[in-house]
Predict the 3D structure of the following.
Amino acid sequence: MRIRFLSLLTLLAALSVLLPVTAVALGQLEVSAVDWATNAGMVRFHVQFHNPGPSLSESASGEIHSQEYGAFLPDFGSIGAFNVPPLMPDSFFDVFIDVPLDVLPPSAPTITPWGNKTAAVICGPDDRWGGNVDIIWTEATGGGGQVNVHYCDLLVCPGAGHSYVHVLTGCTGLITWSFSGICPGWHVALLNEDYTPVGPALWAGWTGFFDVWADASVPVGTTCCIMLNLTCDGVTVPVELCVEACDCSTVETESSIWGDVKSLYR
């Protein structure tokens, strides 16, 4: 299931992001939207619950947990608890939880062609936390559900180098993988830690990089949300990366891998 969301902070920032989720629901409620936005060192998480059934839903309670960016990873910690009251048929309830950025796991490290320099003035803010969110809830008589979101943003300079984001996995066996959602003019590769291309299967505990670049013909402001589908023990987890084309014509870029590495560990 894929979910489009809009939150109050996202509206103010004129951002719209499509998040992939892995969902299991055994009760009356479903999650219809998940999003988060960063503002002045705080992250606001938003979860929208929906009652799609023909009768009044049960009350529910649950928690939101954070993880690092990737798949098959352990929980880092609790973002917060919530309660959902009984909902009329086809009605919604929004949960908002604000937490300091520093209580979350580190945002996924990114590498850009401009290295240590900033392109924020040209490309806009790049401060959305990149990571995973697990939402688990239980309904009054024992039903419930779980939703997992895996999401990160990345800025790309069309025709002027590659951008990278670090990805983690926690599968104890081999992982098969595939890409989907690649837009015209965009290119993507999956790389090992030494920047070599991966094979058809990833080993247990693999870590590496999403590598994305765009043709010079891709219009500035264009976004593309690319899915890395990781399968472990028969379970497929969609890990999404939404990339935005920026006008980097006035930003000095670093073309070497060593420049990229320096920017990752800044």
The chain has a mean pLDDT of 85.
